[in-house]
Design goal:
By secondary structure, the protein is an alpha/beta fold. Helices cover 40% and strands 21% of the residues. It has a 7-stranded parallel beta sheet, with helices on both faces. A 3-stranded antiparallel beta sheet has the order 1-3-2. The protein has a 3-stranded antiparallel beta sheet with strand order 10-11-13, covered by helices on one side. Strand 5, helix 7 and strand 6 form a beta-alpha-beta unit. It is globular and about 55 Å long.
Length: 276
C-alpha cells in the first residue's frame, strides 16, 4: 500500500509541475478540483516540489522557478526529480546495448539509473566521466565478493578531470582522455534541450567534455525525460540533428514529439511500442 501511495504522489506532483510550467502558475483550489484530492494534500505536494527547487510557493498557489542559465543543481537535488520516468528511460535505453559493446555514459542522474540496468549485460567496456556511474559498477563488483572480477563484468574506464556539482568529471584532462577513445554508443544526459539551442548545459567545461564524447561515438543516444525540453543552459554543445536517438518518457506531449521528430532521427518513448 505504501509503494502505491508513493507512486500516486509522484505522478500527481509531476502533473502539478507540468501545469505550473505550462500555465506559468496555478492556484491550490484549481488543483484540488482537477486532481480530486484535498487542499492539504495539494499543499503537501507544493511543499515537496518547493523543497526540490522546481517551483515557488506563493499565496494561494505556486509559480515556476526561473533559473539562471548558469544554475547547476547538485546530484542529489536532480535525483529527486522524475525518478520513475528516469528508471523507465534507463530500462528502455539498456535494451539498445549489445553484449561486448564499448559504450560511454556521461554524467547525470538518468545515466546513473541506466548504469544499474547494465550490470547484467556481459563483456561491456564502459567509459564514463561520472563518478556516480563508476561507483555503480565498482559496488556491484564488491558485492560479488572474493576480490576477483566477476565473470563477464564490465571493464570501466573513468576519465580524470575537475568535478562538477553533478559529480561529472570535466576539463582538459577528461577531454584528452576521451579524444583518444572510440565508442559504439554514447548515452548522454543533458541539462536542457530545445529546437533553437539544441543540447545545453550551465557548465562551460562540461559543454566541451560532452562535445568530445559525441565526437568519439558512432551513435549518440540522449537519455532525458520530457521536462528537459525547453530548458536552456548557458552553453550549447550540439544541435538536435547531431542526436541519433532520444529516449524519453510518456510525459512528452504530442506537439513536442512532432517537433522533435523534425530534428532527431529516432524518438524512443519508454513503455510504448515503436511507430511502424
Amino acid at each position: 500500500m505504501t509503494d502505491n501511495q508513493n507512486l500516486l504522489a509522484e505522478q500527481r506532483r509531476a502533473l502539478i509541475l507540468d501545469e505550473v510550467r505550462r500555465r506559468g502558475g496555478v492556484r491550490v483550489n484549481e488543483l484540488t478540483r482537477r486532481l480530486n484530492v484535498s487542499d492539504m494534500t495539494i499543499r503537501r505536494d507544493l511543499d515537496a516540489l518547493a523543497r526540490q527547487g522546481v517551483l515557488e510557493k506563493v499565496h494561494g498557489g505556486a509559480v515556476p522557478v526561473v533559473e539562471a542559465s548558469t544554475h547547476e543543481p547538485g546530484f542529489e537535488a536532480k535525483s529527486a526529480l522524475e525518478p520513475s520516468a528516469k528508471d523507465d528511460i534507463a530500462r528502455a535505453a539498456a535494451a539498445l546495448v549489445a553484449p561486448g559493446s564499448a559504450i560511454a555514459l556521461s554524467g547525470g542522474t538518468t545515466t546513473y539509473a541506466l548504469a544499474r540496468h547494465l550490470l547484467d549485460v556481459p563483456e561491456l567496456t564502459v567509459v564514463t566521466n561520472s563518478v556516480r556511474v563508476a561507483d555503480v559498477f565498482h559496488e556491484a563488483q564488491l558485492a560479488g565478493g572474493g576480490g576477483e572480477a566477476r565473470r563477464g563484468a564490465a571493464t570501466v574506464v573513468l576519465t580524470g578531470g575537475m568535478r562538477t556539482p553533478s559529480d561529472a568529471l570535466v576539463g582538459p584532462v577528461a577531454d584528452r582522455a576521451i579524444r583518444s577513445l572510440h565508442f559504439d554508443l554514447l548515452f548522454l544526459g543533458v541539462h536542457g534541450i530545445s529546437a533553437e539551442a539544441g543540447l545545453s548545459t550551465p557548465n562551460l567545461a562540461e559543454a566541451e567534455t560532452n562535445h568530445c564524447l559525441m565526437r568519439s561515438a558512432r551513435r549518440v543516444v540522449v537519455a532525458a525525460d520530457h521536462t528537459k525540453w525547453g530548458t536552456v543552459g548557458l552553453s550549447s554543445f550540439a544541435d538536435l540533428t547531431e542526436v541519433d536517438t532520444w529516449v524519453t518518457d510518456r510525459g512528452m506531449d504530442e506537439g513536442v514529439r512532432a517537433e522533435v521528430a523534425e530534428h532527431v532521427a529516432e524518438l524512443v518513448v519508454a513503455g510504448e511500442e515503436p511507430a511502424r
